Amino acid sequence: MPSRDSDISALTQGAMDLPRAPEARWLPGVPAVRLMLGRPLTHELYWLTLEGSLTRALQLRCMESFHVDVLREGYSRPSVEEALTLGIPSRQLAWIREVQLCGDGQPWVMARTVIPLDTLKGNGRRLRHLGRRPLGHFLFSQRRWHRGPFQIGIARATAPGQPTIGRRSRFFRGKDALLVGEYFLPNLLARTP
Ligand SMILES: C=C(O[C@@H]1C=C(C(=O)O)C=C[C@H]1O)C(=O)O
Questions:
Q1: Ligand 1 geometric centre to CA of 55 (Å)
Q2: Pocket of ligand 1 contains residue 179 by CB under 6 Å
Q3: pLDDT tens digits for 45-97?
Q4: Ligand 1 centre from 52 Cα, in Å?
Q5: ipTM of the complex in this document
């Protein structure tokens, strides 16, 4: 895998062992779900098709606590495919945020968000200062943001604990957009949703 994020500072010690967004094959939601229907993937399907804020849904499943661990955050180049999806020049920097959403002390979801420079203007300035506050709170508390259709991503496992399944969508505010990828980790999928 190309080290496209080498210039994002890793914020957590031992970050090499932490989950990374895999290079997935992205398919539109409906064909991907059809492809998976023959497989015993009920938990995956539940999470892949859940509407509304994922943060909120995970918080509701916690017995004790929910928190966001920021793994990497900073200006970096998106992959060529991410840039095409967002309609931005492929060599243009973007603000890239990678986090783990953790329930009851365990990482459940790894998320990678690509925010183009234009989206960081105006009210979007706040996106660079989320810290441990979930992005979902920002996006779902503001009426101006709406979500586009989901794509489903399937990747090959590269190491135990690394995600192999995820979903991705763009959020839009007028002509500005951002891209949120959410990758489901094995210890979430092992639980009954
Ligand atoms: C988009 C949402 O925000 C969640 C929180 C994120 C963050 O804090 O970086 C990233 C992806 C999401 O799963 C959501 O809650 O649905």
A1: 6
A2: no
A3: 889 889 999 999 999 999 999 999 999 999 999 999 999 999 999 899 999 99
A4: 10
A5: 0.94
Alpha-carbon distances, residue 18 vs 10, 136, 160 (angstroms): 10, 22, 11
12 in a structural domain: no
Nearest residue CA, atom 9 of ligand 1?
A: 135
What spacing in Å lies between the alpha carbon of 69 and ligand 1's midpoint?
12
Sign of CA pseudo-dihedral 30, 33, 34, 35: positive
Using DSSP's 3-state secondary structure scheme, residue 58 falls into helix
Please tell me the total count of domains within the chain.
1
Residue 182 Cα: closest atom of ligand 1: 13
Domain of residue 131: give its range: 23-189
181 lines ligand 1 (CB under 6 A): no
CATH number of 183's domain: 3.40.1410.10
Round to whole Å and give the CA distance between 16 and 126.
28
Please give the Cα distance from 125 to 191 (Å, whole number): 37
